[in-house]
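Supplementary Methods, section 5.1.

A reviewer requested that the exact input to the structure prediction be made available. We therefore reproduce it here, unchanged from the version used in the analyses.
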Amino acid sequence: MTSLICGIALSAHIGLANKYNSIHPYCQYETPKQYIAGAYYNSVDNISLFAGYKWKFNDETSLDIVAVTGYYEYDVVPSVRLNYKNFFVMPAVEEDEVGFVVGLDYKF
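The structure derived from this sequence is encoded cell-by-cell as follows.
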C-alpha cells in the first residue's frame, strides 16, 4: 500500500560537541515496494529532502538507507537509520568526530 506519513521525531546527539536541533517534523511517502522519499527539518536547522529504500525485517524493525540533502557544504550525503517500533538510532559525523543519534518517532 502506498502511504503518506507525517510526524515528528525527537532526537539526542551522542558523542558530538555541538548543540543540535532535536525536534524534527517530517512527511514521508512510501511505495508498496518500500521506496521512500520525503522532507524533514534537520538537526542543523535546514530542510532536508531524502530518497531511498526501507528494508523491513519484520513488522517492528526496519532499516532506512537514503540519500539526503541539507547538511553543511555537502549537496547530498548518505544516511542509514535503524528503526525499532517508534525508536531509532543512526550514525552521525561532526568534523573529525563520530557519534550517533537516538530518538523517538511519533507518527500522526
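The CA atoms of residues 50 and 68 lie 4 Å apart. These observations are discussed further in the main text.
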